UniProtKB/TrEMBL annotation:
InterPro entries: Acyl_CoA_acyltransferase, ODC_AZ, ODC_AZ_sf
Gene Ontology MF term list: ornithine decarboxylase inhibitor activity
Name of protein: Ornithine decarboxylase antizyme 2b
Family as reported in the entry's similarity comment: Belongs to the ODC antizyme family.
Subunit (UniProt): Interacts with ODC1 and thereby sterically blocks ODC homodimerization.
Entries under PROSITE patterns matching the protein: ODC_AZ
Species assigned in the record: Oreochromis aureus (Israeli tilapia)
A biological-process GO annotation: viral translational frameshifting
One Pfam family linked to the record: ODC_AZ
One cellular-component annotation, GO: cytoplasm
Residue ranges of the TM segments: none
Amino acid sequence: KMFLHASLCSSWLGGSLMPCSIPQLKIPGGRGTVRDHSLGVLLHKDEKLTVTQASSVSGSSSLLRFHYQLSERRSASWDTALSGDSLFLEIPAGPLVEGSKEGLTVLLEFAEEKLKVNYVFLWFHKNREDRLSIIKTFHYMGFEMVKPGNPMVPARPDLAFMVYSLENSSSSDEE
């Protein structure tokens, strides 16, 4: 049986206090821990967006990979952890891919309509040189900074968290 380790959780939380509670498991006969998205379960695919479940984890959590095709040669991908009514999204190191805002908008729509989450949290390291640009970009999209000590996110002083609340929009649709 093949198990995948989610570097998403281990890199984010240093292997402790994980919202997705993934033990570090090894692939039998392999070297170390591996993340292979080709082994994921396909959850959704259309002409631009592909969503795969990389692995299931304990409880109600799972790891999802969103892949958005921006053009024939360019794409953007996000690794996420789905836990309860929240989706946690890492902003990877390096510059944001041009056009990734379009893909992230599609990700937010998918999270609301298909995953039925109430919150999308994104996180990045506070020591990034482009952190102000990231904050400005995502604030423009409707994300708000999460205050330190918020119980919905891990206590990690080296990370910054932003949240996009889908609660209000989904409740008004039902009325």
